[in-house]
Amino acid sequence: xxxxxxxxxxxxxxxxxxxxxxxxxxxxxxxxxxxxxxxxxxxxxxxxxxxxxxxxxxxxxxxxxxxxxxxxxxxxxxxxxxxxxxxxxxxxxxxxxxxxxxxxxxxxxxxxxxxxxxxxxxxxxxxxxxxxxxxxxxxxxxxxxxxxxxxxxxxxxxxxxxxxxxxxxxxxxxxxxxxxxxxxxxxxxxxxxxxx
Length: 196
Hints:
13-stranded antiparallel beta sheet; Lipoprotein
């Protein structure tokens, strides 16, 4: 019996998850979604009605799951979540969503990273759940009021590829993978363009 236990102990340890897991890292292209800003950077937006709003970049929040490397329950990887938060001087999202947030989740090396936009309560979620509702980035080239053009921008629009959370005043936002937030539109028709 002792010989059997001595033989089975290493096998049980391997099966229950002891050992090294592989930390998952996003590709350079995926990381670009959250790499447009530096912590503390301020972005000024001006509206078609003369109003100004300032967004301030917080430090990227990084969270890795499966820290205990439980291979049996969670698999051989340590998924990564990166969260970019732009704090808004003006609250367009009520208590539930005062900031502009982009969350990137990378679960395995083979899978494409998923994106979740919560832009002052305008929620767009690119889910990798098989059979689940799929969020689609809508290509929407943008030319800002100052004349700068972003041909590879994407739109997040209520009713098309996003939904409202309670209290949100946004009807649409435009984001470029490398330049970040470019424009947002309120339900009132007021449009704020990046000014700096």
